[in-house]
Every structure is written in C-alpha cells, then in structure tokens.
Design goal:
The complex is a heterodimer of chains A (371) and B (605).
Chain A (H helix, E strand, L loop, with lengths): L1 E2 L6 E12 L5 E2 L6 E2 L4 E7 L3 E5 H5 L6 H4 L7 E2 L4 E6 L6 E5 L4 E6 L5 E6 L2 E6 L4 E7 L3 E12 L2 E3 L2 E8 L21 E3 L3 E2 L1 H10 L3 E7 L1 H8 L7 E2 L7 E8 L6 H9 L4 E5 L2 E2 L8 E4 L14 E2 L4 E4 L8 E6 L5 E2 L5 E2 L1 E6 L5 E5 L3 E3 L3
Parallel strand pairs in A: 16-17, 17-19, 18-19, 19-21
Antiparallel strand pairs in A: 1-25, 2-14, 3-5, 4-13, 5-12, 6-11, 7-10, 8-9, 10-11, 13-14, 14-24, 15-21, 16-22, 20-23, 22-24, 26-27, 26-32, 27-30, 28-29, 30-31
Chain B lengths: L13 E7 L3 E10 L2 E11 L9 H16 L22 E6 L5 E7 L5 H11 L2 E8 L6 H10 L4 E4 L9 H13 L11 E5 L6 H8 L3 E5 L13 H18 L3 H7 L5 E2 H16 L3 E6 L4 E7 L2 E7 L8 H14 L8 H13 L8 H25 L7 E2 L10 E2 L11 E5 L1 H4 L4 H12 L3 E8 L4 H8 L3 H12 E9 L1 E2 L6 E9 L5 E6 L3 E4 L6 E8 L3 E2 L8 E6 L4 E5 L11 H12 L9
Parallel strand pairs in B: 1-4, 4-10, 5-6, 5-7, 7-8, 8-9, 11-16, 16-17, 18-26
Antiparallel strand pairs in B: 1-2, 2-3, 11-12, 12-13, 14-15, 17-18, 19-24, 20-21, 20-23, 22-26, 23-25
Helix pairs in contact in B: 2-6, 3-4, 4-5, 6-7, 8-14, 8-15, 9-10, 9-11, 11-13, 14-15
Classes of the chains: A mainly beta (371), B alpha/beta (605).
C-alpha cells in the first residue's frame, strides 16, 4: 500500500462542501436550508477603499503642530474628488496654497507629529456567488455560508482567471484534437468552450476577442501562456490574471491529449449551464481549477475519495515518456529501484492497458483513478 | 522539560533531535561511541501541523518511533512520553528540536531608507531565521497606498520597524508607524492576538512610536539597529525576534505549546539553527564558507566570510513551485546552455512548467534529470547573485553581524568574493540526492564559479538544523558530527582566475598523497581535469600559476597546502571566470560533463 497525493476529481456525481466567504464582514442573503443556484449571490460586502496618505504639512510649508489651523476638514468627514482639504494664506492674503483630495472618500486621520493626512477612498462592493448549486448547510453571520451539493465536477491541473458561468459548448469532435481558431464562432460568446487536446495561442486570442468566458482544454504551450499573460504568470498561484478569459487545462503544458474519462464526462455536460474557475494554488492548501455542473443521473457507482494505491489500483502516469497511459498496479516493491535517470526511487510496477507491457514508474509520478 | 534537565548537557551520551519541516519531521539519533559523538540513525514522519491532525507533536512522536524502529532503541514510553534519561539501551539524555512547520517564522520589515535601515531590519529578520514576506520603506518605488494595501493583506507573525539614528530626526519613522497603524495588519495565528511589532529605530522617538501603535499592536522596543549611520547592531532585535517566536507565535501554532515543553532547550527556527552550526564550524576552522539549501519554492544561501554572517532567502527561486519563476528570470537560453543535448525551446518550457504544476513528481529519464540539474544551476546562480548583492557590507565603518550573540563590532567584510570561500556546502534534494556525486560537484562549480582552491561538500541528509540546535548546548559534539557524518566530501576545486587565452598554460600542479606516487602536470586554459583522491584522504597540493593568473596567493604566486579528497577528487578547472562556451555549446557541455564523470548514460544526442 502506498499513499498518493496526486488525485484530481473527475466525476458525474460527487458530494462537495464549500465555504463561500467574504474577505471582510458584510451581509449574507440566504438562509440555512435554502437551495441556491450556482450563479446566485449569497453574500455581499463593502471592501474598504484604498488609503491615500498625503503629507499636507510639507506641501503647505507649515509645521505638523500648526497643521490643524490650515485644515478645512476633520477626521471622519466625507470628501469629494478635488475638494479642498487644507489651505494657507500669506500675510497679505495674496498667495494661497491648498491641498485637494485625490479621491471621493473620507478623512481617516490627521497626524500632529508628521503632518500626514490619511484619506480613504470610497468602499468597493464585492459579491460572492454560490458557485456550486446546492443547499445552505450553515450561515456564518456577516461572513458567508457553507454549502453542500451533489455536482458533476471536473478538476483540471492548471488554470488562469477567476469564476465565470455559462453554457458548456463542446467544440472537439474526437479525443486529442488541437483547438484552432476555426472552431470558434460568434455563437460561442459567453460560453464555456471545451476542446480535447492542445489549445493554440491564436485560438485563445480569438476567444478573448469574441467574449468567450472560459476554455477547457487538455493542454497549452507554456510559452504561449506566458505570451498571453506576461511574465507575471505564476503556475504555482494563479486566478487573478485579467486577460478576459478563464482557462482550465486538464493535463498540463505541451501537446497533451485529454484523458478519455474527462473527455467523456465533459461531452455529457455539453449544452448545460456550468460554473468554471481557473484559480490554481499548488501549495498551502492546494486548489485546482474546476468545472462544476448539476449532477448527472446515470453515473454508475458513487465516487469515493480514496488516497491509497494498492495492488490492483487503476492509475495514470503523469510524467515522462509514458504520460497519460493508464494501467493497473501489479507490484509495489518495498525497496527503492534504480530508475532510468540513474536515481534510486520507490516505484510501482504497472501493467499498461495500451500495450500490455509492464512499466516501472516512480511512485510520485502516478495518480490514482477513483471511480 | 527545559527547567531541570534530567541529565546535564555535558554528561549527555544519547541525544534525539527533530526538525519539524513543512512536510516532513526528520529525527536523528546522536550517540557517544568510544568518546566521539556520531549520528547513528535517522527516522522521519509526515509533519502534522495542518488539518486534520493539527498537532505538531503527533508527527514528532511518529518520527521518534520511526527512529526507535530503525535503531532498536525504545524512545517513547507507553504514555507517549519521551523516555529520559537513557538507561538500559532505552531513551535519550536530551531531546532538542527546530521547526519551520506551518510556514516557519514570517515577518514584515519596515524602515525609512530601503538600503539602510530597512536593509538592516531585513538582515536581522533573516539572521533570526525568518521568511521576510515584504519590506516597506519611505523610498519604496511603490506608491504609499500600495504599500499600505500590501501591509494589510500580509498576515505576518510579527513586524520589525527600524529607522533613524539615535538623536536624529524621527518624523519619517513616525510616518512609517502611521502607515502601519492605518494598514492594521492582522497576525497569522490567533484571532484575539495582537500583532507583535518590534521597534528598533531612533531611541529618542519611542514615545511617539508608542502613541501611534499602542492601539493596534503589541509593541516591543529594543536598541536601535543603526544607532549611528555606520554601525549595525543586530543582536538585540534578533534576540527579541527569537523570544517572540517562542513565546507568542509558536504557542499559537497547533501543538507547539507542548513541543516547547518537551524540548531540553528552546525550539529554534530551522534556518536560524543552520546559521548557528555554520558559524560554529567557521569559527572552529577559521575558514570562510558558503552553504546553499535549494528547495521546491525557495533557496536559502548562508555565508560566513571573515567572521561576518549573512543569510538570504530567494523566495521565488526553487525547483518545483518556483521552477517557472526561474525560467522566466533566466530565459530559455539560460537553462539550455547547461544541457549536453539540443532541445526545442517550447519543449523545455513545457517540461519546467509541468514540474511547477505537479511539484511532487520526479525526473524519470536522463533527459528530464539533466533539465532539472540545468534549472538548479540557474536557481543557484541567481540566488548567489542576490546573496552577494545583499552581503556587500555597510557603507562605512562597523558591522556587527556575528550570529553567536557576541555583538561587539567587527570590521566590515566589504563584500563576498568567491576567492574568499574555503568551503561550499550543497543541500537540498537536487544536490544531496543526485544519482552521481560528480553531478552535484558540477552544479556547485557551474553555479557558484568558485575561485582559487575551494573544498566542495554536500549535506548528506540535511542534518544542519539538528546540529545547529545541538551546537547551542554541545558545540564540540555538533562539530564532531558535522565533519564525520553530515558533510560528504565531493572533493576540491582548483580554479585559476585572471586573463588568459584558450589553450594557453594556466598552471603547473603536483599532488602527492601518502603512499602513492605524486601526480603532476599542467592545466591549459579552457581545460577541465579530474585527479582522483578518495573521500577521507588528504594530499599535498602544489600549484604554480602563470604570471597573470591567481589561485589564492596572488598573481603568478605559488600556492601549496593540504587538500581533501572526495567522491569526485581534485577538480582542476581552467575554464576561466566567467565561463565561456567556445564553439558548439552542446558539445562543450557534453565534454565538460564527461570529464567530470557527471554524464548519465543514454542522454539524447
């Protein structure tokens, strides 16, 4: 028996529990026991506006201790953009100096020590939607909700961009097909487009032009994504990119084909309303990008999360020349073996389904297929 | 357990030490054998600071039980307690621990001028073993509102605020405190816990600082880091960081309250412990050394040169989580130049980026292994460049950067020159577990470009933190294990520096080991040679460089000393500094790796 941490959920019916929380206190709209739709707002808050420090005393040429004489507003006052907040007049009343507010907002503080005035811009509204269609199990007052839902779920390996909603549109005809621009039309505006192989940079740009909300594909060239996002792309922590398109890759970087099981499930979801999120976080609480939809009726046995690999487990190879191949574990040697790189590593012996051969694969390089 | 030890440290014969890392808790057993301390066994278990267990001591007990199983020595009794003192082949006399679990110690530092007070604050925090999440300063290029936003988003364990000289102006320091108060950052652990802020700036404005921060933070005041512009005193701030880490931060983290009670000396942040053992080793041998620990997300570089200690953490340079950052930083060509085969640039970037998104996978072909080692060279090279930029010394007279707490002031190091390094230690999976030690030596030489004569070693199983915490109680025992069990010698690198042309003679050498005929010859510019000299052996090495070249004694000056062997031997590196790739880069790289014995079989052509 060996533990595995490599496992992505691909299931037509799986129970998920999700906390949908505000980053600051706000208002929760829904009640315990209520059923919610994936696109339904459940909570809203006003995020404090950014602070704008101004050294008013220095600008006016007065000492911090004397600043109060020049101030036209006091702590807590509301402000309008370009409203005068302080001024001085010369002895003869000819020369006036003043400082105006660079924002709509409020006066946060006025320092007698430094002469610094902190202005806070107006708060920004933030709405949290359910994302998963299900039942409100718990309301956390002023913060958010915990939802429980049975859903169809496809977790990808990497994505960019945040949460979006729309109808799923399958554009691939067969497995492993490269997604070129010719498959994208006006009809895909607002849709979640699904391919089955690599997506090209030109196709990504075309989708942005047309207003496609999200593309789900097996793979993309890493260099293409850097070209699209810029050098701020961080595969270890993504989701805040603002390129106008959410991207979910199910396999990784390169010219990789989608796993058969994932493609079959996405095909079944064709035409349905789904939610998608590209946010990926590789460490400190792993988050993978995902597609969520109402559950499918006929999915066979219920998905059970099982994180151990034993003899007979069905697994998929996720690195190297045999990437994507599926097989069954037939041996778990206790001691490390020398692998092709020359290193010693703990391995699985796997009977491959594609050719019946036995492959010796380092244990970290496989993922469990649980169905 | 810290009060009333069961055995006086100097009488201890059996010692268990754990290092609670982010993912694994590693335990080692140290025993006195025939009057000499040796590391005799190791064990490990997953760290249990995260959900669902949320108690670090569970992982510690598992690691000690693993150690028991490996050593045949019972360490935990039926009640789950560590058996102390040792008796009848059971238990230990001392139990010590370090920790970086739960993300280690995360700090934010703030100062007035980025290159003066903020940099001193950064140095104090790094020296205390912290990860510096951000640095803010009045001359920061970011707009102030962005700095405030960043302060608010960060959830550091504590903040170190510095700035101003004693008796000088203080307005800007108070301004920085006002920004901090406005941002109101919350601590990482403990909902009802106020964020600790250490003030180590101008002592004459402590009252004003207190007025600004007292409502939002738990304020602690220590001596100024820069009491005068040309003097840096890191000791008091560093000591306060340690105490706050133990008394506040660790006690908030799941299970650490118990761990602190279990250990026979204070639990030390892992990087701080590494600094301790390196400092002790440097003082003992009188040598200057560099140690690098390359991980998946970050690369730590430590140096002790001329008695001056420095540590840097390159937060975005690593081989899995940060692999793509390395690629972006150095470019495709930066990586491919280290490969002994041609590779398509798209394939190379895909290989690197796939490692980031599947960080626990390992290379299983020679091609993937060599790509990972090429990436490591660049991550190490960039980390070292950052370290050298940081370790340039103060603009002026006195520094006080010893890690041992004897903060008496010493001459400014004036920076870190590769020629000054006597020993380079490599640590981290890609270096410690390379299939072939020659590959480790090749990575260290190519990344750090040592000059003159430099001993190369690797940390066998990353026990530097364990030895660091041991060195606080038993420095001689720690040093004994450091040399005998921790360091695995790779060999000695000889690299003449100076102007020369390819093919021209660089130096004449003569190497004489006991009982073996002397080996002698000449080294040409551009040439790489290896003379076998086994681990544990020493030999007398005489070098006579040509007129314009230096091997450590000066241009054209003869050099002669005893050098150590290792799993590779004595490496004569005439390639010059910086490295140049004459002709076909792929062929050249293949030739260099073959000469070193670092080439793997079945490498693609």
């Amino acid at each position: 028996m060996a533990r595995t941490s490599q496992q992505l959920t691909v299931s037509g019916r799986v129970e998920v529990r999700r906390q949908r929380l505000l980053p600051v206190h706000g208002e929760v709209f829904v009640n315990k026991g209520e059923e919610v739709g994936m696109n339904q707002p459940v909570a809203r808050a006003l995020l404090p506006g950014p602070l704008h420090p101004l050294n008013v005393a220095a600008t006016l040429g007065v000492s911090p201790a004397e600043l109060h004489k020049a101030m036209l507003v006091k702590e807590g006052d509301n402000l309008l953009f370009e409203q005068r907040i302080a001024e001085t007049t010369s002895v003869l009343g000819l020369l006036r100096r003043h400082v105006s507010s660079p924002v709509d907002g409020t006066v946060d503080s006025i320092s007698k020590t430094t002469g610094q005035v902190m202005l806070r811009a107006l708060p920004r509204p933030l709405e949290v939607k359910a994302f998963v269609p299900g039942k409100v199990m718990e309301v956390i007052a002023n913060v958010g909700v915990e939802l429980c839902a049975e859903v169809a779920q496809v977790q990808g390996i990497f994505g960019i961009g945040g949460e979006v909603f729309g109808p799923l549109a399958l554009v691939a005809e067969r497995l492993g097909e490269t997604l070129y621009t010719d498959r994208i039309t006006e009809a895909h505006r607002g849709a979640i487009v699904v391919g089955s192989g690599r997506v090209t940079l030109a196709a990504l740009r075309r989708m942005i032009e047309l207003g496609v909300r999200c593309v789900v594909s097996a793979s993309a060239s890493g260099a293409d994504l850097i070209e699209l996002v810029g050098t701020t792309l961080n595969p270890a922590s993504s989701g805040n990119e603002d390129v106008g398109l959410t991207v979910v890759l199910t396999e990784g970087f390169g010219n990789l084909s989608m796993s058969e099981h994932t493609f079959e499930l996405l095909s079944e979801l064709d035409g349905r309303e789904v939610s998608a999120n590209g946010t990926t976080q590789i460490r400190a609480g792993v988050l993978r990008p995902e597609i969520i939809a109402p559950p499918l009726d006929d999915v066979g046995p219920r998905f059970e999360r099982d994180e151990t690999i034993t003899t007979g487990s069905r697994v998929r190879i996720i690195r190297g020349e045999e990437f994507g191949k599926i097989g069954r574990v037939q041996g778990i040697p206790e001691n490390p073996r020398t692998i092709a790189s020359g290193a010693n590593a703990l391995v699985f012996e796997i009977d491959l389904e594609s050719n019946g051969k036995t492959a010796t694969v380092p244990r970290p390089n496989v993922e469990l297929i649980s169905q | 357990m810290q009060e009333g030890l069961s055995v006086k440290p100097e009488e201890a014969k059996v010692i268990a030490i754990t290092d609670c890392g982010s993912t694994t808790t590693k335990a080692i057993l140290i025993e006195e054998l025939d009057g000499v301390f040796r590391q005799t066994c190791r064990g490990d278990a997953p760290t249990t600071v995260e959900a669902p267990v949320e108690d670090v001591t569970r992982g510690v007990v598992s690691a000690l039980e693993d150690l028991s199983a490996m050593s045949g020595r019972r360490l935990i009794d039926d009640s789950g307690n560590i058996i102390r003192p040792s008796r009848n082949g059971e238990g230990v006399d001392l139990y010590l621990s370090t920790s970086s679990a739960g993300g280690g110690l995360q700090m934010m530092v703030a100062g007035v001028v980025r290159r003066i007070s903020a940099e001193s604050a950064e140095r104090a925090a790094l020296g205390a073993g912290a990860i510096v999440a951000d640095i803010v300063a009045c001359d920061d290029e970011r707009p102030l509102y962005e700095q405030i936003d960043r302060m608010r988003r960060l959830r550091p364990d504590m903040v170190l605020l510095a700035g101003g000289v004693d008796g000088g102006a203080g307005v800007q320091v108070v301004e920085m405190a006002e920004l901090l108060a406005a941002a109101d950052p919350r601590p990482r652990f403990g909902k009802d816990f106020r964020l600790p802020v250490i003030y180590a700036g101008n002592r004459d404005i402590r009252e004003e600082i207190s007025d600004v921060l007292k409502d939002n933070c738990e304020l602690f005041t220590v001596d100024n880091l820069r009491p005068v512009i040309d003097e840096e005193r890191l000791g008091p701030a560093r000591e306060r960081i340690h105490n706050l880490f133990l008394d506040h931060v660790m006690r908030q983290a799941p299970g650490f309250g118990n761990l602190v009670e279990w250990t026979d000396s204070p639990v030390t942040p892992t990087p701080s412990a590494v600094g301790e053992i390196l400092d002790v080793a440097s003082q003992d041998s009188g040598s200057s050394l560099l140690c690098v620990d390359i991980g998946g997300a970050t690369t730590d570089v430590f140096s002790v040169v001329g008695g001056s200690f420095n540590r840097t953490v390159s937060a975005n340079l690593g081989l899995s989580y940060s692999a793509t950052n390395v690629l972006i930083e150095c470019g495709i060509d930066g990586i491919s130049r280290w490969l002994p085969f041609a590779i398509d640039s798209a394939e190379l970037s895909d290989l690197v980026m796939n490692k980031t998104i599947r960080p626990t996978t390992i290379p299983d072909s020679p091609k993937e292994l060599l790509v990972e080692q090429a990436l490591a060279r660049e991550a190490l090279r960039l980390s070292f460049a950052q370290h050298r930029a940081f370790a340039t010394g103060l603009k002026g007279g006195l520094t006080d950067r010893n890690i041992d707490g004897a903060f008496t002031g010493s001459a400014d190091s004036g920076g870190l020159a590769p020629m000054d390094l006597d020993l380079i230690i490599g640590s981290g999976g890609v270096l410690s577990h390379a299939p072939n030690p020659a590959q480790t030596a090749a990575m260290l030489i190519d990344a750090f470009l040592p000059e003159g004569v430099t001993r190369l070693a690797k940390d066998s199983i990353f026990m530097l933190p364990h030895l660091g915490v041991l060195s606080e109680l038993l420095p001689e025992a720690a040093l004994s294990v450091f040399e005998a069990d921790c360091l695995k010698d790779l060999g000695t690198c000889v690299a003449p520096v100076g102007k020369t042309r390819p093919g021209q003679p660089c130096l004449e050498y003569r190497l004489e080991a006991h009982g073996v005929p002397a080996k002698q010859g000449s080294l040409l510019a551009g040439e790489l040679k290896v003379i076998p000299l086994a681990e544990g052996e020493t030999a007398a090495l005489e070098l006579a460089p040509t007129r314009k070249l230096d091997v450590g004694a000066g241009k054209g000056k003869r050099w002669s000393e005893s050098v150590r062997g290792g799993s590779v031997g004595v490496i004569l590196d005439g390639r010059g500094r910086p490295l140049v790739w004459p002709g076909n880069a792929v062929e050249q790289m293949r030739d260099w790796l073959e000469t070193l014995g670092a080439m793997t079989a079945e490498v693609p052509s």
